[in-house]
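User: My collaborator and I are trying to settle a disagreement about how two of our proteins should look. Neither of us wants to argue from intuition anymore, so we agreed to look at predicted structures for both before our next call. Could you fold the first one, then the second, and keep them clearly separated?

Assistant: That sounds like a sensible way to settle it. I'll keep them separate. The first protein:
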Amino acid sequence: AQCLVGSEMCIRDRSLIYIIEKDNKMKKKITATVLSQKEIAPRIFDMWIATELAACAKAGQFIGVYPKDRSTLLPRPISICQVNDKKDALRIVYRIAGQGTAEFSSYQEGDSVEILGTLGNGFPTEAAEGKKVFLMGGGIGIPPMLELARELPASTEKQIIVGYRDDQLFLKEDLEKNGTVYIATEDGSVGTKGNVMNAIEANHLQADVIFACGPMPMLRAIKKYAEEKKIKAYISLEEHMACGVGACLGCVVKTKEVDHHSHVHNARICTDGPVFDAEEVEI
């Protein structure tokens, strides 16, 4: 069966839903398998999922994870933390934030999970070629920085600046394998006391390009810093999403240019993003 959803077409069969956009990119809703899961910090879980979607996944993209509770229709958007070397499994690291993610935290090895992906545009890794780069993550915006660090060109000088609430430094060891890590904690228990901007100042760091993901106050500060220093910055916006495929216009950000879909000055974070050139969005 076929149906139009906004500017996309859905093709349904018994096992899959394909969403074909105008640019011919294809997303799939599939049943994947949990390979492993563990709690790596209070209420923060690390899950590996076996799925064919890993073959085309990029740093900065995300997947939609469907709860098994059929009264919950919409998937939960979770960023891709890592793709394994064989490209047949994805790693997601997420915080329990509600009923859906609480359910995900109970999954064990061998359990099935329905996912939609891969979603979003990802980071423009080619912009880092031969450059000194900041990879900046705050809170649950830290996980995407791991796959980004793995994908950046070998010529990139990677400075990974991450902000935590306290000394629960999830993913620290993984990040250290892929760049030089600088830590900020809100309570001052590790590294620089404060946020990622304080860590830049305290360590006298400089960069040519910035990639960032985190809460909106952090991204606003990074956008302002990039403008003052005349540095190109790419920011991944965290936002509550509904459909995840751009049909509902539930997640928009104000932009300088007119969006081709809605014909107003906004963009859909789930499809036009979540990564944007910081100069092009008003946050």
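The second protein, kept apart from the first:
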Amino acid sequence: MRIIEEEQLDFDDLMLMPQHSDINSRKEVCIERTFKWLGNDNLQHSFTCIPLMAANMIGIGAPAMAKVLVRNKCICTLEKHYSFEALDKLFFEVADFEKIDNVEEGTYRNLLFPTIGIKESFDVLKQLDEKWHINALVIDVPNAYIPKVVERVKEATQLFPHAFLVAGNIVTSERAYTLLEAGCQAVKVNIGAGSCCLTRKLTNCGRPQASAVIDCANAAHNLHKYIISDGGCKNEGHIVTAFALGADFVMTGSMFMGCDEMETETIERNGKKFKIAMGSSSKRAQDLVFGGMSSYRASEGREVLVPYKGPLINTLSSIFGGLRSAGSYIGAHYLKDFNKHANFYKVSRTLNNVFANCESIAK
């Protein structure tokens, strides 16, 4: 047994320091990035996006959400239990959007990230790849410290040598190195930080998200690869913080909950509308996907009602605006340079919440 005494930080512990800037307007800040990688096919690949990702949660990593996200240059990490027919339909519809919007073929489809675990067959994704040439693949496991994840990564690099391969979840640089050297292009960083996650309550395992992002980003960037900060963002400012700490992508589920496009049931109580939200390891999610929860496991996910908040585009606009404004405060013209420009204060409080519980005027 050992105790690591180095202080561990979360997003709420940090605030960006405003500094000299030559940016006169937030519209001058570019929040798109181009990501490049050498595939296992020895060919150079790339895609361009706003590196904001929807989590592969039930109702979030879903077609209605995906179609809005990709047309706004963001990524949708698809929930992992879709059939070939469902995925094929989504890719077909997104291909139609490319024609309607007169963009280069593949521009939107490259931002659809199918997901698989360690138990499912690759057959559905191989069939999808044969028809649509999928650009990316996510191997999603709550605990990516188990040996089977490395085996799965190596298998995926052989079956999809061209794909931008992601695996997770982890919180330490040592495991980041292991997965990236096994063939991943990016790792997902988070254990227990998600809004609908109960892992920390049940297991006391995890790591504060800011420290995890810093540690894993250093490892990935040493290998010229990438990390995804997955979860822990309670507001737009936390998304800014994740990028400024070194994250290349930020994944969120809670920020998109309650939107029109969230594919879960809408409930009305006392004249107010809510959407059902559930963690992937919740009993409700396990019932939906597997027809019940295995006797050897506990529910590590919350099931909650989140207030309805209208179209997804409103949330995206708020996040985009926050990113551009932050860039103007720290003097970063490009999102990829946020980390180079960032200086932080360590704080005990970041927000004034005096009116936090008041009813909003906005409908």
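Some points you might bring to the call about the second protein. The mean pLDDT is 91. The CA atoms of residues 91 and 132 lie 7 Å apart.
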